[in-house]
Amino acid sequence: APVTDVQFGPMRLHQDQLQVLLVFAEEDDQSNGFRWACDKAGFRCNIARTPQSALECFLDKHHDIIIIDHRHSRYFDAEALCRSIRTTKASENTVIICVVQRHTDREESSILPLISAGFTRRYVENSSRMACYNELIQLEFGQVQAQFKLRACNSLFTALEKSQEAIEITSEDHVIQYVNPAFETMMGYQIGELIEKELTEVPINEKKADFLDTINSCIKIGKEWQGMYYAKKKNGDSIQQNVKILPVIGQGGKIRHYVSISRLCNDNNKVEKTCECIQAESQTDTQTCRHKDMRKGSLDVRSTTSRGSDGSSQRRRSSMARVHSMTIEAPITKVINIINAAQESSPMPVAEALDRALEILRTTELYSPQLGTKDEDPHTSDLVGGLMTDGLRRLSGNEYILSAKQTHQVAGSLSSPISLNDIPPRITQAMENEEQWDFDIFELEAATHKRPLVYLGLKIFARFGICEFLNCSESTLRSWLQVIEANYHSSNSYHNSTHSADVLHATAYFLSKERVKQTLDPIDEVAALIAATVHDVDHPGRTNSFLCNAGSELAILYNDTAVLESHHAALAFQLTTRDGKCNIFKNMERNEYRTLRQVIIDMVLATEMTKHFEHVNKFVNSINKPLAALEENGNNGDGESIKTVLRSPENRILIKRMLIKCADISNPCRPREQCIEWAGRISEEYFAQTDEERRQGLPVVMPVFDRNTCSIPKSQLSFIDYFIIDMFDAWDAFADLPNLMEHLNNNIKYWKGLDGRNLRVLRPPP
């Protein structure tokens, strides 16, 4: 098998035989051409026919090059496969090629969607064997070799992390890009306090300005400076350091980084004498700035620091992946250290299993299940993909404009709301049992002519004493509720003010549960009710993925991240504070308002589904399990132990997030008729989105939600199985909600009954 030696600065790297993965649904001249080229080049070659087999093969072999067929979308989604591969740690240095069709009669298309999906480059189909061979050889000596060198950087950063000398790397503009643990220990800072900060701390010296000029006059012309100076630690203490500063030449022959290597001068006479000698040498050579070989007495970091601004973040990620070598231990670091220690005395099978566990722990998506762990159900994959991603980031000429240019309803443009005492009898009757879980929100919707939020809000807010807490009048609260409701879209089948009122009702119900009342303060209750009221204000009836794919103004404004949730929170405060007539916060003390505002924002953002599993898992591990342990140990009556778990600030945040999340998607736990109605409404909204995506030529985020073919029972079962069951099991264990769990079980049986009869509709035929 051919092997290659690669020179990387002073390092000589040994590169094994390259491995290539071909992903082609069917054998054709193009796949045969690449297969022949692999044999001729001496590369190992594997072939996969499906995305699942491709991913499994890659995770097993860790190929250097992957070539994916993007010519026939009917077989599989090449961009989705590429994104799946890129989510794995193993793909960090993999070169992924996209084979595209040759079009002679069409204008050249943009390559940006392919780049966004994670492809390294594209290959316009050409089944000529020599063309395939030339492509592989260019890749070997181009991108593959470059990625091979980048992998070698990990060993360099391991050396930096373990070095006893304090090392600091800055940009050409003296912005800190890296410090090692020894530097953190010496100076008393944590790395997060330093990264991307400018070097403003100048050495404390009698001739401070002259001294700094002396250093700069050396390093700015590419020469090393070595000497001794005094620096301030974080706590203000002054320390004496023996310092070496090395300029690093990069792109364009210019200085791109500076590397500072420091050693503390302590009370050891030998070290002091060394420092004095170096200092004297430095002072005598100030004018000439002796040019020294940068490799002598220091680590050659040219190759790891001269890749431009993007390089520093990439290097930091490589370094942070080795969290077990850090001196500042986060809980996950301690877990990894424990596993590493256990490996040393473990038999080989156990050590290998621990290796796999470590790989999982070092990924960033610790809480999100891998699609494919459940049955390969398109309803599940489409639903989860649509709710838990921000779209394909595909650039489009079509722009979906909403909200940013809309004129929102304000207090002055609305008719005067009625008083709580003047509510019509039919509406009063519809709200009689609003404290019960079986309260019928649709009856209130009909009685109020689709304005349930104002009326239900007035009653619930009065029951919880919100006006008294906020020190605002009932008329201000009425105006606020009316403004908020007016900015929900009644044209949406699901995300309208009835959904908001439903979530408000669920939130109030959960707040009345004994365990929740033990946990939360009055300000938390106020924040929860306000957050529930505003959590979907101005929702356009489309998902985040749709807005990102459409290039909407909101997606651009919020950088494709939690687009809608960010908009709901921001708009709620804009609508509230722009007019004194509806500003329910206007009489609050500043600090209390800031606290309330932060809790409201955090709760609204918690309704975003991409972090669903993170919120649920943190709740289970930080609250459910400790409480269960106390009960198992016979400490059920130990109020202090339970209070410690419930009342810590971190756990209260988790409880509030879980509360609004459960309230937001509690439809499957409602009585059957309400559950069915909500299922029909959300399905209609997803159908409308699919229709619009096809009209506008946008990526179809959830293809299964086609109004002509979709099985609503299957989609409901998928949603319940993936999102609802685990979350409500955890919430029930905390808040004690047997009635909700009974409804949930009954509704699961109902949907399974319809699905078992192959019915795709909401209700069985008469």
UniProtKB/TrEMBL annotation:
Pathway: Purine metabolism; 3',5'-cyclic AMP degradation; AMP from 3',5'-cyclic AMP: step 1/1. Zn(2+) 1 binds at residues 499, 535-536, 664. Its EC number is 3.1.4.-. GO terms for biological process: cAMP catabolic process; cellular response to epidermal growth factor stimulus; positive regulation of ERK1 and ERK2 cascade; regulation of DNA-templated transcription; signal transduction. Residues 282-323 are annotated as: Disordered. PROSITE patterns: PAS, PDEASE_I_1, PDEASE_I_2. It is an enzyme of class 3 (hydrolase). It holds the Pfam family PDE8A_N. Residues 152-222 form the PAS domain. AMP binds at residues 495-499, 536, 664, 716. Binds 2 divalent metal cations per subunit. Site 1 may preferentially bind zinc ions, while site 2 has a preference for magnesium and/or manganese ions. Zn(2+) 2 binds at residue 536. Residues 288-299 have a biased composition (Basic and acidic residues). Keywords: cAMP, Hydrolase, Metal-binding, Phosphoprotein. Residues 419-758 form the PDEase domain. Interacts with RAF1. The interaction promotes RAF1 activity. Hydrolyzes the second messenger cAMP, which is a key regulator of many important physiological processes. May be involved in maintaining basal levels of the cyclic nucleotide and/or in the cAMP regulation of germ cell development. Binding to RAF1 reduces RAF1 'Ser-259' inhibitory-phosphorylation and stimulates RAF1-dependent EGF-activated ERK-signaling. Protects against cell death induced by hydrogen peroxide and staurosporine. This is Phosphodiesterase. It comes from Rhagologus leucostigma. The gene is Pde8a.
